[in-house]
Amino acid sequence: xxxxxxxxxxxxxxxxxxxxxxxxxxxVALVRIDSAPVKRLVQQLRREGTKLIDATQxxxxxxxxxxxxxxxxxxxxxxxxxxxxxxxxxxIFAPEPAEEEEASAxxxxx
Length: 110
Prior knowledge:
By secondary structure, the chain is of the alpha+beta class. Helix content is about 30%, strand content about 25%.
Protein backbone atom coordinates (compact mmCIF):
# COMPACT_ATOMS: atom_id res chain seq x y z
CA UNK A 1 0.00 0.00 0.00
CA UNK A 2 1.47 3.30 -1.12
CA UNK A 3 0.78 6.21 1.25
CA UNK A 4 1.04 8.75 -1.59
CA UNK A 5 -1.99 7.23 -3.33
CA UNK A 6 -4.26 8.22 -0.42
CA UNK A 7 -2.76 11.67 0.22
CA UNK A 8 -4.71 14.47 -1.47
CA UNK A 9 -2.53 16.55 -3.75
CA UNK A 10 -2.06 20.13 -2.62
CA UNK A 11 -2.18 22.75 -5.37
CA UNK A 12 1.14 24.46 -6.08
CA UNK A 13 2.06 27.55 -4.10
CA UNK A 14 3.45 30.80 -5.52
CA UNK A 15 6.14 32.62 -3.56
CA UNK A 16 4.94 36.26 -3.63
CA UNK A 17 8.10 37.41 -1.88
CA UNK A 18 9.86 36.95 1.44
CA UNK A 19 8.63 33.34 1.71
CA UNK A 20 4.96 34.31 1.66
CA UNK A 21 2.91 31.92 -0.47
CA UNK A 22 -0.41 31.97 -2.33
CA UNK A 23 -2.27 28.99 -3.80
CA UNK A 24 -1.84 29.22 -7.56
CA UNK A 25 -5.32 27.89 -8.33
CA UNK A 26 -6.85 30.84 -6.40
CA UNK A 27 -5.08 33.58 -8.40
CA VAL A 28 -7.36 35.58 -10.69
CA ALA A 29 -5.07 38.48 -11.72
CA LEU A 30 -1.68 40.10 -11.17
CA VAL A 31 -2.03 43.89 -11.44
CA ARG A 32 0.47 46.75 -11.16
CA ILE A 33 -0.11 49.17 -8.30
CA ASP A 34 0.60 52.34 -10.29
CA SER A 35 -2.94 53.00 -11.58
CA ALA A 36 -5.22 55.30 -9.58
CA PRO A 37 -8.18 52.87 -9.37
CA VAL A 38 -5.98 50.11 -7.93
CA LYS A 39 -4.42 52.52 -5.42
CA ARG A 40 -7.90 53.65 -4.33
CA LEU A 41 -9.03 50.05 -3.90
CA VAL A 42 -6.00 49.19 -1.77
CA GLN A 43 -6.50 52.30 0.40
CA GLN A 44 -10.18 51.46 0.84
CA LEU A 45 -9.36 47.91 1.92
CA ARG A 46 -6.69 49.19 4.32
CA ARG A 47 -9.29 51.45 5.97
CA GLU A 48 -11.82 48.62 6.20
CA GLY A 49 -9.22 46.22 7.57
CA THR A 50 -10.60 43.22 5.68
CA LYS A 51 -9.72 41.16 2.64
CA LEU A 52 -6.24 42.71 2.37
CA ILE A 53 -3.11 40.63 2.95
CA ASP A 54 0.09 42.65 3.02
CA ALA A 55 3.02 40.40 2.06
CA THR A 56 5.44 43.26 1.34
CA GLN A 57 7.34 43.05 4.66
CA UNK A 58 7.38 46.86 4.81
CA UNK A 59 8.66 47.33 1.26
CA UNK A 60 7.01 49.32 -1.49
CA UNK A 61 4.02 47.56 -3.06
CA UNK A 62 4.64 46.76 -6.70
CA UNK A 63 1.96 44.20 -7.50
CA UNK A 64 -1.57 43.43 -6.36
CA UNK A 65 -2.65 39.78 -6.54
CA UNK A 66 -6.42 39.29 -6.80
CA UNK A 67 -7.71 35.97 -5.46
CA UNK A 68 -10.92 34.13 -6.34
CA UNK A 69 -12.01 34.42 -2.69
CA UNK A 70 -12.19 38.22 -3.05
CA UNK A 71 -9.04 38.77 -1.02
CA UNK A 72 -6.16 40.87 -2.29
CA UNK A 73 -2.47 40.18 -1.64
CA UNK A 74 0.10 42.98 -1.85
CA UNK A 75 3.56 41.97 -3.07
CA UNK A 76 6.86 43.82 -3.22
CA UNK A 77 7.74 41.89 -6.37
CA UNK A 78 6.73 43.00 -9.85
CA UNK A 79 3.97 41.26 -11.74
CA UNK A 80 6.55 40.21 -14.36
CA UNK A 81 8.52 38.33 -11.70
CA UNK A 82 5.38 36.66 -10.34
CA UNK A 83 4.12 35.78 -13.83
CA UNK A 84 7.48 34.23 -14.65
CA UNK A 85 7.27 32.13 -11.50
CA UNK A 86 3.76 31.01 -12.43
CA UNK A 87 4.86 29.96 -15.90
CA UNK A 88 7.77 27.88 -14.55
CA UNK A 89 6.42 25.32 -12.08
CA UNK A 90 9.88 24.40 -10.81
CA UNK A 91 10.47 28.03 -9.75
CA ILE A 92 7.21 28.54 -7.84
CA PHE A 93 8.76 27.68 -4.46
CA ALA A 94 12.27 28.97 -5.00
CA PRO A 95 13.19 32.63 -4.51
CA GLU A 96 15.16 34.05 -7.39
CA PRO A 97 18.30 36.17 -7.04
CA ALA A 98 16.34 39.09 -8.50
CA GLU A 99 14.02 38.96 -5.46
CA GLU A 100 16.82 40.01 -3.13
CA GLU A 101 17.83 42.79 -5.54
CA GLU A 102 14.24 44.05 -5.86
CA ALA A 103 13.72 43.92 -2.11
CA SER A 104 16.92 45.77 -1.27
CA ALA A 105 16.22 48.46 -3.85
CA UNK A 106 12.57 48.84 -2.80
CA UNK A 107 11.48 51.80 -0.75
CA UNK A 108 9.38 51.45 2.41
CA UNK A 109 5.61 51.76 2.09
CA UNK A 110 4.25 55.24 2.78
